[in-house]
């Protein structure tokens, strides 16, 4: 008895991978074996990139808060220690936005911490 092969499912799988490879350069976009490897690697990078994005943004927020705090005579660690002790419920994302886009509001926070 001949072997039964599900051509419909295997063709659909290949089609999906080639769809993900759309826009790649050279044989990476249309040769199954090359495209499969490129797409797998790309998906792995995308997964890792989603984790790195969170790290990078936190780092950026810290830099912005540090720059804003130093303009008012405080270091980042002094500022964040005072924020945590004072009970201000603002996270780094909001503090960085205030330091960058609303310096007068950030100055008010720093002044309240210095008292």
What does this structure look like?
It comes from Lishizhenia tianjinensis. Belongs to the bacterial ribosomal protein bL20 family. Keywords: Ribonucleoprotein, Ribosomal protein, RNA-binding, rRNA-binding. One of its GO terms (biological process) is ribosomal large subunit assembly. The structure is a single chain. This protein has 115 residues and is mainly α. It has a single domain (8-114), classed as c-terminal domain of poly(a) binding protein (Orthogonal Bundle). Helix content is 76%, strand content 0%. 13% of the residues are buried.
Labels describing this entry:
c-terminal domain of poly(a) binding protein, rod-shaped, 115 residues, 5 helices, mainly alpha
